[in-house]
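Hey, I was hoping to borrow your eyes for a little while. No rush at all, and the record is pasted right below.
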Amino acid sequence: MGSANARNDPQGSAHLFCQPQSGSWGNPCLSAAQTPDDPDAMIGCSQAFLAILDTVRSVAKRRCCITITGETGTGKEMVARKIHQFSDRNEKAFIPVDCTTLTGQLFESQLFGHVKGAFTGAIDNTLGFFRAADGGTIFFDEISEIPLELQAKLLRVLQQGAVTPLGSTRSHTVDVRVLCATNRDLRQMVSENEFRADLYYRLNVVNLLVPPLRQRLEDILPLALFFLKNLSAFYSEPLKWLAPQTERIIMQYPWPGNIRQLANALERAYVLSEKAVIAPAALPPEVLLEKLYPVNGSELPTIEQAKEKLVAEALKRTRGNKSAAAKILGIERRRLNRLIEKLNVSASKLKH
């Protein structure tokens, strides 16, 4: 989620929070710890958000390891970056590591570096992530995905504070703050022998839980404004707004993909909306389908029933314009025609 430069990222990097709004779409306020041009601004006003921000500030200047947990898309890396920004290491490097890519020899080479000739293709010396982060912060994203047989090597470095490059016998002392994130239950993984207990206790000195978006509804509209403003800048177009009904729909949707899904949904809606006000029909089909068939304990529709309802709703909102309805549904008009025929969508739905 790097820089929030809207010219490079239409959704902006701050796929998390910033601070409460003052009661209208156009007047967001920033916390005392932030400035309007903060590239890692954190957006939100819910009590859950404020609790996260308080925790971030309280632990930032400590050296202990922190495990950030939460569902996919909640913005765990943004929280890690904010901890680094508030720390006394903020002038040094913040090195993110995608643990899903660390396997075998690549694990040691990327983390600890290697010397020239250590293996086929090692044409030069490399520092590795730990030495590159010396004096700063290293962030292990999806720490749960490191293979069990390699976790001991990581633990050894954390305990000794030194790394030995692959192919070398010389160790190098490193001063690194370790943060990590996961969307899995590490404690359960320990009980199932999928994660080392000693590494778990080493990393989990402080556990910071980032709640899902459905548990902090007050943050949805401020986030929506943030994304729409970035999209406006990215496309060099006037700002677009959500219609009141569109606001209600996005407030009611559970957002299983959390902030990342919200950002993607709003970009789709922005692109498909030719008018300044974004109507509900521009939202992704799965969001509209939730509105048509909310999951509240009642019996779910069949796939065919859901498709029929969705096609009919798109045609209704476009007053029978098949091209526009197909665009909303993200399909070709020919496929829409086949669906209309297959599902026997009532002819009345195709008219005004």
About this structure: Residues 312 and 349 are 6 Å apart (CA to CA). Residues 1-7, 13-37 have pLDDT under 50 and may be disordered. The beta strands are 66-69, 94-98, 137-141, 162-163, 172-173, 177-182, 206-209, 241-242, 277-278. The domain at 216-350 is CATH 1.10.8.60 (Helicase, Ruva Protein; domain 3).
